[in-house]
Amino acid sequence: MRKDLSCHVVLKFLRTTDVTTCMRDCTDNCHGLLFNELERNCTLCASVKIETGNPDKKATAFEKVKKKCGDQTPSDSTKTSQKLCPPFENKKNGKVVGESLLEGATKNLTCHPGYSPRDRNNVMSQCKNSQWTKITECAIVCPTFENINNGKVEGDTLFEGATRNLTCNPGFSPRDSNAVLSLCQNGQWTKITECIKDCPQFITPKYAAVEGESIYVGSTRTLKCDNNYKPVNESKITSVCDNGMWSSITRCVPDKWEYRAFEFNQSIYVFTNQSDTFAKAVAFCKEGDGHVVTIDDETEQHWVKTTAPIVNALDDFWLGITETEVPNKFTRIHDEANLSYYNWASGQPNNAGGDQRCVDVLRGSQWAWNDAFCTDIRFIVCEVPN
Ligand SMILES: [Ca+2]
Question: What is the pTM of this model?
Answer without folding.
Answer: 0.64
